[in-house]
């Protein structure tokens, strides 16, 4: 049996990565800092970020799983209409916890305290994207970032976040 103090910090094997993007409406509304703050306050680690204007073709690849939906073309066009803050965050259970932090896709169904519950009103302008599964997170991270764009670092607070 593992002793209470035998493991002071989480191993890298326990860590997950997820892709988070502040959409054009979130960027235009000046919400990038608020969103970063929420992830940092939660204790997650930012390991890659870039401010980009993605092409419509790039967005079609990103949302490929939605290609049969009636809103697909409009979504891809909208997402390429302005800058996006693309980020990779790391932490234990981050895919699940980030989705909880984001709230429901439809802000009207989101709880107060969630990003969408606090900061937006309309499903078509829901300010943020987050990977919904570990597999999708890997696919999205690989689509947006090259290996050399990641920063490997250890926050001073890590020992206070993980056993």
Structure description:
The protein has 163 residues and is of the alpha+beta class. The chain has one domain (14-147): Alpha-Beta Plaits (2-Layer Sandwich). The chain has helices at residues 24-28, 32-42, 56-62, 72-79, 94-102, 115-119, 134-144, 158-161; strands at residues 16-22, 45-52, 84-91, 128-130. The chain has a 4-stranded antiparallel beta sheet with strand order 2-3-1-4. Helix 3 (56-62) packs across helix 4. The two termini are 15 Å apart.
Low-confidence region ranges: 1-9
Rg from C-alpha positions?
16 Å
Strand runs, count: 4
Shape: globular
Beta-strand content: 15-25%
* Strand numbers in spatial order across the main sheet: 2-3-1-4
First-last Cα distance? 15 Å
Whole-number count of domains: 1
User: Considering the protein shown, what is the CATH homologous superfamily?
Assistant: Nucleoside diphosphate kinase-like domain
Number of helix segments? 8
């Amino acid at each position: 049996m593992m002793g209470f103090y035998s493991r002071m910090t989480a191993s890298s094997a326990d860590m997950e990565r997820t892709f988070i993007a502040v959409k054009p409406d979130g960027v235009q509304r000046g919400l990038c800092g608020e969103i970063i703050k929420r992830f940092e306050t939660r204790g997650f680690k930012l390991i890659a970020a870039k401010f980009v204007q993605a092409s419509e073709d790039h967005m079609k690849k990103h949302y490929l799983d939605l290609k049969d939906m009636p809103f697909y073309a409009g979504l891809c066009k909208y997402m390429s209409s302005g800058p996006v803050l693309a980020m990779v965050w790391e932490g234990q259970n981050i895919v699940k916890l980030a989705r909880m932090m984001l709230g429901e896709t439809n802000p009207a169904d989101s709880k107060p305290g969630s990003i969408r519950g606090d900061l937006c009103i309309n499903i078509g302008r829901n300010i943020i994207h987050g990977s919904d599964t570990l597999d999708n997170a890997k696919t999205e991270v690989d689509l947006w970032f090259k290996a050399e764009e990641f920063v490997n670092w250890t926050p001073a607070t890590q020992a206070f976040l993980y056993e």
